[in-house]
Design goal:
Chains A, B: It comes from Neobacillus bataviensis. Chains A, B: It is found in: Cell membrane; Membrane. Chains A, B: Pfam families: CBS, MgtE, MgtE_N. Two copies of one chain form a homodimer. By secondary structure, the first copy, chain A, is mostly helical. The first copy, chain A, has three domains: 7-139, Alpha Horseshoe (MgtE N-terminal fold); 146-246, CBS-domain, CATH 3.10.580; 278-451, Orthogonal Bundle (Tetracycline Repressor, domain 2), CATH 1.10.357. The first copy, chain A, is 70% helix and 6% strand. Chain A is built from 23 helices and six strands. Chain A has helices spanning 7-19, 23-31, 35-44, 47-56, 59-68, 71-81, 83-92, 95-102, 107-116, 119-129, 136-139, 153-163, 188-193, 200-203, 217-227, 247-265, 278-305, 307-312, 315-344, 349-382, 385-415, 420-446, 448-451, and strands spanning 146-148, 172-176, 182-187, 211-212, 231-235, 241-246. The first copy, chain A, has a three-stranded mixed sheet. In chain A, strands 4-5-6 form a three-stranded mixed sheet. In chain A, strand 2 and strand 3 (182-187) form a beta hairpin. In chain A, helix 19 packs antiparallel against helix 22 (420-446). The radius of gyration of chain A is 30 Å and the shape is elongated. The N and C termini of chain A lie far apart (84 Å). The interface between A and B is large, with 111 and 113 residues.
Chain lengths: 452, 452
């Protein structure tokens, strides 16, 4: 019916059914929409229609809608819904999405929402909230299908059919023993290809790839990506199956971690997006900027300690920003390669040695090339051969130092189990600023009498 | 059997079965391993065992293994396999992975490999290779399950069971009409919940979310992420279903696109990783560095045009790197927010206006804060109130300009359909360098007689 309509036409059509109070027609439209579309329509709906819109929605669609909204919109929606319907919606929401919401509420509000929910669901979500942020435990769901190893394929399929509606992933069935320990996994595909009377224990994989509930979410995502899994089981310290992480969460983790890397590399504060308020965004960015300000003052002190040299050959100042900028840039280039490489690569001594040797080679190559170019430019511009040699040789050394610093510092941080991205961006910029100024003015001072 | 063994123990065990020529035992181990594990073991295997290892592997495991290896390893493996087995392995490989491999070979080698394959498979992979890189057509697979709308649920399930083994995604069945046009989709979950005699056309979604084969892969990934799809159908210009893109490729796209953003923001050359050769990496990085070098020379010219001012007040040089660095940094911070925001956000005039207003607010806030701090430092350090005022007011203006440049330039590029990340990093650094030097020395020259 709405197949060939644009999003705007669908919105108008929905408003029409709301105005005319045609619930059946409304439901027929909603049947054909995805949760993402429902959320877009809800967000753009005039305020006066939102109440009836929510009233018309079925509880499971409301739960899907909740999962698509951001926190403010979720709270607004719950307020409109009222207590009784809220409980039903929360029961149907994915645990991990619900945990995210509850986590940001006041303890009273949280308890009141939890108390309205089914016992089973509220304890599941409370369980999730006990795990530290950014771990597997925090993003897992309890909506998975488990079977016992003595089941036949037919029994497994029967159980699967019953739970298919609620399960978040229908691709794998996890096999547990009497202590709920994870002992195997069967893909639904394998079930289809097996004989109905075969036992699960005969067709299951015993070497299950799983993650612990305390595992960092980045590692969870890497593991799922390596194995191309659509879901990965989560176990506690006794290998008891406690949940699964599904591939939609894996994608969100990759996006989130990439954003974090970029934020850290650009020394932005954490989690600034288009919705962040002005003062919040400024407050998150200021610490780095103030740090850089003081670092800038240190650079200034270094320059001032060469004041005499600078005063005699003011032309040295012309090349100062270029040398600092180039050194900083080559450092950032190396840093980007290392930080992203650490995400997908297995790191051992051989890899590290080869990488450092490679970057040294890169540093020398770009150092020689850029040094020759700038030496020629400086000579032609200022008509001073020694100045050209000083600027060129300084750039040669600082480019090598910058490249190596951008490679080695993140590797050291990684070894010390500090996220290389967090400290490296500003750290490398600073160190490279200081190195490059010291090198430049050091060489210049040595050749001062030839320069004048 | 190998359930509780470490990776190294499994490797040793496999070498033992190879040495003792125990094929059955070898196959029993392999049954329990994932393709990723098989690839790791193969890569670390001593050369002398690789031949028998490959000889022992079944064709489908060989195809899985191929998909995990990088290009050099793939070619090595094909050489060991010989022509006949190679053809069988290529037939079983995923089209998109095979297209990636073939694409890098010489035309002769490519044709010889294609000629050994099944007609159906070789024409499918050739079809994929006709699409431009980084489009949906290039990453899709033809291993999906399609049904007709007049099928009953039972017929659909029967067809599904036959194709489950080969299908890359078992989550959705796509419904086509007699012209192979995509007219609906049924999730496997829906099939399980439906009555066997119901018609597919009665239970299918008609409003199928699909992408065109020419769609940019980044848009494909965004669409799949929004809708939490495990696969997304690809159609040609006539809405004929030509393939599907599966979620494992979606994840790879997100990783690849994030890496590209980081490379571009850090002005690295494209696609440098741990394996890239020294000279190749240097050659990819040099263009940006040489560009920055010439930009640095422009900055130098600006400084030299204020030579007189600088000569009279050498202390101005002390604050030069700090002002340029801070301006560059705030620009990069804004840039990172915008570039990542554009990936997940829908952009309209309202969003853009609000974002620019927010960043203006941020620029003023951080400008005031940092200006006051540096003015006090400059005054205390140099004992010159006017110098403090000049440095402080310069920083105030350059921080606002830097923040706005980092926001507005990527938005303009986005509007012009140029990838904001590619040009923005170096472009913003340049413009901010030039703006900040002009502002600083301009203000300083105005107050020159008070400074001395």
């Amino acid at each position: 019916m709405i197949k060939d309509m644009t999003a705007d036409e669908i919105s108008l059509y929905i408003i029409k059914t709301l105005k005319e109070n045609k619930k059946a027609e409304f439901e027929a439209i909603l049947e054909e929409l995805q949760p993402y579309d429902v959320a877009k329509i809800y967000e753009d709906l005039p305020e006066k229609h939102k109440g009836r819109f929510l009233l018309f929605l079925k509880t499971d669609v409301l739960a899907d809608l909740m999962e698509e909204l951001d926190k403010e919109e979720q709270l607004e929606l719950l307020n409109i819904l009222g207590i009784e319907k809220t409980s039903k919606v929360l029961d149907l929401m994915d645990n991990d999405d619900l945990a995210l919401l509850l986590n940001e509420l006041s303890p009273e509000k949280k308890d009141s929402l939890l108390s309205g929910m089914k016992k089973e669901e509220s304890s599941a979500v409370q369980g999730i909230m006990n795990y530290p942020p950014e771990t597997a435990g925090r993003i897992m769901t309890n909506r998975f299908v488990w079977i016992r190893d003595y089941f036949t394929v037919r029994e497994a399929v029967d159980k699967f059919k019953i739970f298919a509606e609620f399960a978040e992933s229908i691709n794998y069935l996890y096999v547990i023993d009497e202590a709920r320990k994870l002992v195997g996994v069967v893909s639904y595909r394998d079930l289809l290809l097996a004989e109905p009377e075969e036992k699960i224990r005969e067709i299951m994989y015993e070497r299950v790839i799983s993650v612990s509930a305390a595992t960092d979410q980045e590692v969870v995502a890497q593991t799922a990506e390596r194995y191309d899994f659509l879901a990965i089981p989560v176990v506690d310290e006794n290998n008891v199956l406690v949940g699964i992480v599904t591939v939609d969460d894996i994608i969100d983790i990759f996006i989130q971690e990439a954003n974090e890397d970029i934020e850290k590399l650009s020394a932005s504060g954490k989690s600034i997006d288009f919705e962040t308020k002005t003062l919040v965004a400024a407050a998150r960015r200021l610490p780095w900027l103030i740090l850089l300000l003081f670092i800038g003052v240190i650079s200034g002190r270094i320059i001032s300690s060469f004041e005499e040299t600078l005063q005699r050959v003011v032309a040295l100042a012309f090349f100062m920003p270029m040398i600092a900028g180039m050194t900083g840039n080559t450092g950032t280039q190396s840093l980007a390669v290392v930080v992203r490489g650490l995400i997908t690569q297995d790191i051992d001594r051989r890899v590290i040695t080869r990488l450092i040797a490679r970057e040294l080679g890169v540093g020398i190559t770009i150092g020689v090339t850029c040094a020759i170019i700038i030496a020629i430019i400086a000579y032609i511009w200022q008509g001073n051969l020694i100045l050209g040699a000083v600027v060129g040789s300084s750039l040669f050394f600082t480019l090598i130092i910058g490249t190596l610093a951008g490679t080695i510092i993140p590797l050291i941080l990684y070894r010390l189990k500090i996220d290389p991205a967090v400290a490296s961006g500003p750290l490398i910029t600073t160190l490279n600023d200081i190195f490059s100024l010291l090198t430049y003015f050091g060489i210049a001072t040595m050749f001062l009498k030839h320069l004048m």
